[in-house]
């Protein structure tokens, strides 16, 4: 397997691999282009997002700036709204369902690091996919950790740190996020 294939599969990989470095440079160039646009410049924004994001449904609105690792592992349903300053570390797939609204400064983190010191010293990284269902609302500053699935219709309170799966229709708040 290539380092890229390992990364996407959630296996330990080496982020310094030349192919991955080139992919991150590409994403940074596209982010810079997108982040210099304003909301009324859809004729400029949409083609940039089509190059940056793995897939997106109709009606998606992503407020600039946005930040990604690679972009191609991000898959958005229809009418997804993402407010200013969101970070999506997409070393593994990040999937967001239709009509989900994500507040400003949210972080969706598929990237992780080994717990064993010797693996960190070997410069290995890994990740776990993140799945967010349809009709989810994430308040500003929420953080979603690697491997989390958030069910359809759930609410994640502002500033919550989501460390485990959230059931459909459930509301979670706090650090770590817990149902209310």
Topology:
Blueprint (H helix, E strand, L loop, with lengths): L2 H7 L8 H18 L6 H11 L2 E2 L4 E2 L3 E3 L5 E3 L4 E2 L3 E4 L4 E3 L4 E2 L4 E3 L1 E2 L4 H5 L4 E2 L2 E3 L4 E2 L4 E2 L4 E2 L4 E2 L4 E2 L8 E3 L4 E2 L1
Parallel strand pairs: 1-4, 2-5, 3-6, 4-7, 5-8, 6-9, 7-12, 8-13, 9-14, 12-15, 13-16, 14-17, 16-18
Antiparallel strand pairs: 10-11, 18-19
Secondary-structure element string = HHHEEEEEEEEEEHEEEEEEEEE
| Span of the ends, CA to CA | 44 Å
Task: Give the integer mean of the pLDDT values.
Answer: 97
What does the radius of gyration come to? 16 Å
Secondary structure tally: strands: 19
Cα shape: globular
Question: What helical percentage do the residues reach?
Answer: 10-25%
Number of contiguous helices = 4
How does the major sheet shape up? 7 strands, mixed
* Structural class assignment: alpha/beta
The strands making up the biggest β-sheet line up spatially as 2-5-8-13-16-18-19
Describe the structure in your own words.
The strands form 4 sheets. Strands 2-5-8-13-16-18-19 form a 7-stranded mixed beta sheet, with no helix packed on it. Strands 1-4-7-12-15 form a 5-stranded parallel beta sheet, with no helix packed on it. It is globular, with a radius of gyration of 16 Å. It is built from 4 helices and 19 strands. It has 180 residues and is of the alpha/beta class.
